Amino acid sequence: MIWLVRVALSHPYTFVFMAILIAILGIVTIFGMSTDILPEIDIASNVPIVQIAASSPTLTEAQLYDYGLNFIRTQLATVQGAVQILRERFVSSVLLVKALGGGWTSGGSSQ
Hints:
- It contains three helices and three strands, in the order H-H-E-H-E-E.
- By secondary structure, it is an alpha+beta fold.
């Protein structure tokens, strides 16, 4: 460690230059960094699909279907853009809902 101090004292301009270079490169790097948290998504080729699974040990399948589906539809209605439910069904006491989001339409109908 003492050798570094001796080199710095014998070549002060080199260390000043290196400090200025590090500061300039740091500033350039900070301003050149991307600030987006979410990546860019090409909506034309990537259709957003939402899949939801809901279960409740206290509700019967009919109650879960009625309450759960109404709740899910209400929540999906708050999403910006039109959300179309493609499929809803029960598998082993679990309500499964598949929806197409972001204003897209599908040729199929809801099952």
